[in-house]
Amino acid sequence: MEKERKPKNIFVQGAITPEKIAQSIANHSTKTDIGGHSIFLGQVRADEKPEGKVVAIDYSAYEEMALEKAFEIREAIFAKYPLTCMHIYHSLGEVKVGELCLFVFTSSKHRNAAMDACDKLVERIKAELPVWGKEILDSDGHVWKVNV
Amino acid sequence: MEKERKPKNIFVQGAITPEKIAQSIANHSTKTDIGGHSIFLGQVRADEKPEGKVVAIDYSAYEEMALEKAFEIREAIFAKYPLTCMHIYHSLGEVKVGELCLFVFTSSKHRNAAMDACDKLVERIKAELPVWGKEILDSDGHVWKVNV
Amino acid sequence: MNEVILIKAFGMIAEKIGGSELEWKNPGTLEALRAKLENEFPDLKAAKFGFAINKKLLQSDAEIPAGAEVALLPPFSGG
Amino acid sequence: MNEVILIKAFGMIAEKIGGSELEWKNPGTLEALRAKLENEFPDLKAAKFGFAINKKLLQSDAEIPAGAEVALLPPFSGG
């Protein structure tokens, strides 16, 4: 855990697939000091807006700033919780309803650190990363997503 | 959500595979009112005991009672949190270090309900289900797992 | 009336008893059963375990109904 | 000294401006830049957005260094 950590690319083009998640989980089977993994997945909802029904979200980001901020958040969470691993993936471009747009994955010896860190990470990602979702509607129009 | 729910089998023989988790995630892509999934995975640790190093855990359960209790917990969590889905899987028999023995999966419109419900579920599963882990050691002996 | 009870043992308790099932004459209450078990299997004196009657956990002494299934439950360690 | 700044617009703000990049003479401060933007693009008057200078978010007015990259950031909505 003492190795230097550098900013990693958290962005993936399009939806995050269940196979990618399975692969990421499987990669941890050699880390036999892990007792618990906590995972959060964001999925695109078919919300009804006054202007139409959401069919997809088109994500864009200020990528360089987002990666710097993600690194800062990552370091702060590693400093606060005794984690073995932490992974963050966020979609860019179009993600259809029912598909996954966010994958946050924390692992630790005991479950509480993994769970608390995962909650905190998702909270900070949504509040602090310069990422925007354009909700594409079935009426061919769009509205800009608002995080509440 | 108004359909009657009946006790489901939560037990799986041996380790829970990443492929099963991927399949379970993929099954939710048609539920377009889901905005967030929370997943907890328990993984077997290679703990060092005075008597030797853990190489596997052999799980046994009072199955009928465990299923009734899991159903009761499930109903209580559904009553308390606005969830779309909830899944619980626990291994029986041998699970090697690095393999997964518990898979808890909650989904909801907004992330907080899924996360809070998942935490609560894991807490109750560990405290209330009549399940026992026999930690198999590399010294060929064993010790009985203790949940702290 | 069936005054025989089925005793099911789990985990460390099954190990100490050397089996997972016993059929015994109903001793009447859980405390009486505990005394009888400790008499038969002295290893159980140092062991921690609770009871379930017909799959319901009981925290204090209780009467054992005729024909009951009584489970001997060491501390749970699932997950 | 490079007194030109690079303005990057995102999300709804890029949409209102009709583009994602502008190269402007440095107006000196963020407040002066906001006034100039609202003058050039009246749609921005009703829009909510903040600034980052060289990728650092700024919550209040600040001087804009020569050659800076200034980002116009509508409320974040990732996840």
Automatic annotation (TrEMBL), chains A, B:
UniProt-listed InterPro entries:
MoaE_sf, Mopterin_biosynth_MoaE
Q: Which Pfam families match?
A: MoaE (PF02391)
- Write out the entry's keywords from A to Z: Molybdenum cofactor biosynthesis
Query: Per its UniProt record, what CDD domains does this chain match?
Result: MoaE
- Enzymatic reactions: 2 [molybdopterin-synthase sulfur-carrier protein]-C-terminal-Gly-aminoethanethioate + cyclic pyranopterin phosphate + H2O = molybdopterin + 2 [molybdopterin-synthase sulfur-carrier protein]-C-terminal Gly-Gly + 2 H(+)
On whether Signal is a keyword of this UniProt record, the answer is: no
E.C. designation(s): 2.8.1.12
The answer on whether this UniProt entry bears the keyword Ligase reads no
Leader sequence residues: none
Pathway of action: Cofactor biosynthesis; molybdopterin biosynthesis
Q: Assembly and partners?
A: Heterotetramer of 2 MoaD subunits and 2 MoaE subunits. Also stable as homodimer. The enzyme changes between these two forms during catalysis.
Family, according to the entry, reads as follows: Belongs to the MoaE family.
User: What name appears for this protein in its UniProt entry?
Assistant: Molybdopterin synthase catalytic subunit
**Annotated source species:** Algoriphagus aestuariicola
From TrEMBL, chains C, D:
Q: Which Gene3D superfamilies match?
A: 3.10.20.30
Q: Output the CDD domains linked to this UniProt entry.
A: Ubl_MoaD (cd00754)
Bilayer-crossing regions: none
| Pfam families in the cross-refs | ThiS (PF02597)
> What is this protein identified as?
MoaD/ThiS family protein
Species source reads Algoriphagus aestuariicola
